[in-house]
Amino acid sequence: MNFQFRAKAVAALVPIFLATSLAADPLPSWNAGETKTAIIAFVDAVADPTSEDYVTPADRSAVFDNDGTLWAEQPAYFQLFFAIDQVKKMDASDLKSDALKAAAAGDIEALLATGKEGLLEVLAAAHSGMSVQEFKANVAEWLDTASHPTTGQPYTTMVYQPMLELLGYLRDKGFATYIVSGGGIDFIRVLSEDAYNIPVNQVIGSSLVSEYVEDEGTPMLMKRADLFFNDDKAGKPVAINHHIGKRPIFAGGNSDGDFQMLEWTTSGNGLSFGPYVHHTDADREWAYDRDGHIGVLNRGLDEARERGWYFADMAKDWSVIWPQE
Amino acid sequence: MNFQFRAKAVAALVPIFLATSLAADPLPSWNAGETKTAIIAFVDAVADPTSEDYVTPADRSAVFDNDGTLWAEQPAYFQLFFAIDQVKKMDASDLKSDALKAAAAGDIEALLATGKEGLLEVLAAAHSGMSVQEFKANVAEWLDTASHPTTGQPYTTMVYQPMLELLGYLRDKGFATYIVSGGGIDFIRVLSEDAYNIPVNQVIGSSLVSEYVEDEGTPMLMKRADLFFNDDKAGKPVAINHHIGKRPIFAGGNSDGDFQMLEWTTSGNGLSFGPYVHHTDADREWAYDRDGHIGVLNRGLDEARERGWYFADMAKDWSVIWPQE
């Protein structure tokens, strides 16, 4: 082999080496930095059978908030847009309140002016008085046809590419990945498999009472307007225990509604990890934390560091935000 | 090869053939008969990709009642014996009612005479006012030390060998196996992995309200005395939807408390299977159905045949009942 040939051979290997090197990065949309390094170090430690921090696969549960953690939540929770769009389809004669009328007219300001009671009325109209099956069909149709008011994109494209990579990375390393959302369990289950590769039995959320009834011999589950469980704040650890039956070792959130979930997860005996997605990128997404009504992060910002939690700073840590970039 | 050699060779093969043949029987403790044949035909049909009744693995969920279906439930639900044994450990000064006094004295007749309210008081004393972790430790200790009043055996040995084989057979064929019990979710989770090879996140049951609290900086989940969910009768399909998020295709039960679970499971579009364990063997187990207070089976006995459900008749269908036989 002469030198020229060898040089050529090495040159030919360069793109292969680069490809291998890129393929070996489990989180390509995460910029190098403290958080990415810490995530990989944590996963390596719990998944390596020779590590003193090794965790058996059955105990590798990772829980994630949905709104603002796996997909966007501005200018309002997407499920509220779904509810408003459902009210728009109601018969005019059924619009018996100011809240329903405002929603049907698409007048968000007028709807918000009706207060919490008005919002709950709109949510109830879209989420109850039908079977679970019918509700899910409504959600599926809406996801297929609706578009986000700011971006004009389908809602399911507004998921965070770095979080998709994180979910896949954890699953590759033997984790079971769960959604633990303040949003509706039946709503999220319509999209969880396609959007996140998370099976419906690993979706935990808020729910209304459902009732088993027979309609002319056909049994069905009817959604009622009463709240069954509010999967937010201190409700999240309760729901995790109820559905999973053990304490997770990884919890990702973005707001104070996730505080207790991160606290519970990181209070176990072994190694654990609690990252907060921090919305710092007004150019590519939205920038918000302490103020407003959606995804408020106060206590989390104050206490994360002392508790050993990490931030995924969108502007700093994410080279890409959306899958279609 | 001469004839003698061939005969020897064939003779040598006989035990191998028998062993293979036995190993090939997925349900060795089930006697040949209509029910065993139907179970295997059902499983073959839904697991064979070339079958017109094929069901994708993600949709192969099987749900099982626990008391009287996977383990015994006579002369009373085992969880009641646990509760009584816990009350026996209480300080005498805390025994402030006739029900608690009767339980502490082990006087079951006197306890039953206090009625439903007395029983609930005993259950509440054993199941609330402590953390989930502490409760589970109590259950684990009890399972390790207590013995059944009639058989003198540890409770976890009183599981049904044919049902263990059925659970394993279904899992081998790609099913996810779930417990859906009227008994307590936290109670069953202590034994589900060892007794049935069912992970805790596939255990569904009744539950009390639990509350996330901090005790001097340590977060914990405290069990309260209020009922959160009664996983019985029409509650079972509701809980299945809540935890699994889809309709199972196999449901096993033994009482009218399981009727709606079997009805829901067998009302789907594709092939499904609903067996009832029928307690017909007073010699080896107990014989009961229409009468009494435990595991009452009336509507199920009346309607099973017309609904296409099968019976596992203990005396007729099970050659072995207990694993230690």
Q: Topology, please?
A:
2 copies of one chain form a homodimer.
Chain A: H1 3-23, H2 34-47, E1 61-64, H3 78-88, H4 98-104, H5 108-113, H6 115-127, E2 130-131, H7 132-145, H8 161-172, E3 176-184, H9 185-189, H10 192-196, E4 203-215, E5 218-229, H11 235-243, E6 250-252, H12 259-265, E7 275-280, E8 287-288, H13 299-303, E9 310-313, H14 314-317
Describe the structure.
The structure is a homodimer of 325-residue chains. Chain A is an alpha/beta fold and 325 residues long. Chain A folds into two domains: 31-74 and 158-325, 3-Layer(aba) Sandwich (Rossmann fold); 76-149, no CATH class. Helix content of chain A is 41%, strand content 17%. The first copy, chain A, contains 14 helices and nine strands. Chain A has helices spanning 3-23, 34-47, 78-88, 98-104, 108-113, 115-127, 132-145, 161-172, 185-189, 192-196, 235-243, 259-265, 299-303, 314-317, and strands at 61-64, 130-131, 176-184, 203-215, 218-229, 250-252, 275-280, 287-288, 310-313. In chain A, the strands form two sheets. A six-stranded mixed sheet of chain A has the order 2-5-4-3-1-6. In chain A, strands 8-7-9 form a three-stranded mixed sheet. Chain A is globular. Residues 1-7 of chain A have low confidence and may be disordered.
Please describe the structure with a list of short key phrases separated by commas or semicolons.
homodimer, 325 residues, alpha/beta, Rossmann fold, 2 domains, six-stranded mixed sheet, 14 helices, 9 strands
For the report, how would you describe the main beta sheet of chain A?
6 strands, mixed
Indicate the multimeric state: homodimer
CATH architecture annotation of the largest domain in chain A: 3-Layer(aba) Sandwich
Q: Strand pairing plus helix content of chain A: what structural class? A: alpha/beta
**SSE order of chain A, as H and E?**
HHEHHHHEHHEHHEEHEHEEHEH
What general form of chain A does the structure show?
A: globular
How many DSSP helices of chain A?
Answer: 14
Most residues in contact, chain pair and counts = A-B, 30 and 30 residues
Total strand count of chain A, please? Answer: 9
Q: Number of domains in the coordinates of chain A?
A: 2
